[in-house]
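Protein in question quoted for reference:
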Amino acid sequence: MTQPSPITSAAPSAHHYLRQRILTGDLPGGQMLSEVQIAQELGISRTPVHEAFLRLESEDLLTLSPKKGAIVAPMTPTEVADVLEMRQMLEVDSAAKIIAQGKAAALLPLLREILAVQADHLAAGEKAAFAETDDRFHEAVILGTGNRLKERMWRQISLRQQRLRYQFLIVKPEDLPGAYADHLGLADALEQGDAVAYASLLAAHIERYRGAV
């Protein structure tokens, strides 16, 4: 079997390292990045870092300029509004279809499991882990109908949504208990088969994100 070259194996690692730092806000929007500096941090050559930069640019997380180098792309208020609007549309539609198709009972054990883990993260003050379980909860609902096109649409905005969640944790950490309570209410609305209540609760839940950027 042909072994991957060091460059081939290092590039995905560099991409993951940088993407996580951007998503969590450790590398904030507007910050300039140097291929040389990142390569030194990771103990690798510039080539895999350059490949990682190109991939991050394709994900709209970096802006590459021949003169200025790499700049972490900021999330604008317009982009935030667009992401929240699309996310809300996808989830409201999914919840309504899950209820109409009688799939809520099958989905609820997973949602309750996620909520139990999230409660532990909340109690321990583990904000990043709380954000990850937040993402799992909403993704489970959005993908719960098995609609492949909807899944592709979700994947297209998921990175921006994750980035917004982490930003929300930084700006409004005091809202985490309220966000968790929202999740409990959303699960209850599914269990009760109330699509209208789910849509109303989700609108209030998403409103928490506005102003986070």
